[in-house]
Amino acid sequence: MDRLTIIKVGGKVVENTDSLNALLDQFDKISGNKILVHGGGRTATEMAKKLGIETKMVEGRRITDSDMLEVVTMVYGGLVNKKIVAGLQARGMNAVGLTGADLGLIKAHKRPVKDIDYGFVGDVDDVNASELRVLINENVIPVVAPLTHDGKGQLLNTNADTIASELATELSNYYKVYLFYCFEKKGVLVDPNDESTVIYDLDLPLFNKYKAEGIISDGMIPKLENGFRAKMKGVQEILITNPENISTGRGTRLV
Amino acid sequence: MDRLTIIKVGGKVVENTDSLNALLDQFDKISGNKILVHGGGRTATEMAKKLGIETKMVEGRRITDSDMLEVVTMVYGGLVNKKIVAGLQARGMNAVGLTGADLGLIKAHKRPVKDIDYGFVGDVDDVNASELRVLINENVIPVVAPLTHDGKGQLLNTNADTIASELATELSNYYKVYLFYCFEKKGVLVDPNDESTVIYDLDLPLFNKYKAEGIISDGMIPKLENGFRAKMKGVQEILITNPENISTGRGTRLV
After folding, report:
1. Helix, strand or coil, per DSSP, at residue B218
2. Per-residue pLDDT tens for A112-140?
3. B50–A86 C-beta distance less than 8 A
4. Which strand ranges, in their side-by-side order, compose the sheet holding B155-157?
5. Cβ-based contacts of B78 with chain A (< 8 Å)
């Protein structure tokens, strides 16, 4: 099987011009097939604030009412996505920016209301691997924004880590998939303020221990849970690291 | 040559849910290859206002400073584009939303400053027909937002009528192109308040006469100038009409 690298970037990396450019330079060096999945939550929160729309988060997940859906559609699908696409084109990479609605790539359903009403948040049902394979075979680089659709005309907000792991899982039927979760740290840290405390090999028992102890918390929990699920479903390798270490492969490896 | 229909929609049509849905229903009925090009200026103006950014227009063209570029990138590339894509997918059309940066579709240069500094406004240099033909051959429907790029990482704001006529002109080398400029009126009107005064056949001398008399004015002038240029460069048919008359072919025909 051919190799396919999926890079997920979020947080501060995509929202600052310098760190975004550094990321795109690193991304350029990856040989073979590649996909970039991005977030943009901070920019969305900032934009919402400017528009007088309050941001409510529950366990790192955004409550998405219809106003907030407009904000994330603009910010993820427009502002962040097209900046990345233009930056990749400038580096000679033939990128195309996509949401889950484009080409019917990712179908989802609105999350059912249990204790919390997340609003227009989508849980993924289906990834259209054949459309992605056509693009990849044409040497096109998909740049995927964290939005999905329900197939009935409704856009939905879906966590970027989840998008990345769903793409990785589905595409592992056709490629040897290397999934990198890139953020501003060198990996998962025992002490969040000390970059020398990277956990290099993380297995499920150790993850559960650190989670119970509160060492791994907040948004890192669903990221790692997604990662372990993808790993068990056949993704070749999953690494949590910063953009500088895409090439070295150093960081937290799920084992 | 195969037939290709290019529909350009702007103004009130795309910015109201009911009229957008009516348009998408009409668009669904077009047989054969098709492309949708959209505007979104009113939504951009409204969004800019909410963000405290002033909108300045010169002869129907938007002055685009860096703040305004962010607004149009969000609104055209995100909000309007993805709503249309989700709506087409819901109708069983395999749409993909694109800007001129995606797949390197439309390269432009920043308009040189003469009397007026338009800011980040792009004049089109080159349309990448081969990428569009690949999509069309796969039965994909491109939905094109009025944004271009300079190939060096800079996104640019480009008038949607211009995008439509540039696509039509370039693609007329490969297809029999039918270009429809759709807006809320039945065609170009002698009396803007009377829909019974549609000019059915408009040639260049009549256009120049009406322009001199002020009957044709504002944004209609560049729209028609673009249209006549495209017609002279080989576009099969150019019609200015409302969405309801896409199927009847009634409206103002450039001859």
Report:
1. coil
2. 999 999 999 999 999 999 999 999 999 99
3. no
4. B122-127, B106-110, B147-149, B155-157
5. 73-79, 81
pTM equals: 0.97
What domain range includes position A210? 2-254
Scanning every residue of chain B, which has its alpha carbon at the shortest distance from the alpha carbon of A134? B138
The pLDDT tens digits of the residues spanning A150-175 come to: 999 999 999 999 999 999 999 999 99
Nearest-angstrom CA–CA distance, B127 and B108: 9
Query: pLDDT per residue over B25-40, tens digit each?
Result: 999 999 999 999 999 9
Q: Is the CB of A79 less than 8 angstroms away from the CB of B73?
A: yes
CATH code of the domain in which B156 resides: 3.40.1160.10
B78–A74 C-beta distance less than 8 A: yes
CB contact at 8 A, A19 and A84: no
Our count of domains for chain A comes to: 1
Is the distance from CB of B171 to CB of B131 less than 8 angstroms?
no
Render pLDDT for B88-128 as a digit per residue (tens, 0 to 9): 999 999 999 999 999 999 999 999 999 999 999 999 999 99
- With b for 16 or more beta-carbon neighbours within 10 A and e for fewer, the B193-232 pattern comes to eeeeebbeebeeeebeebeeeebbeebbebbbbbbbebbe
Q: The complex's ipTM?
A: 0.95
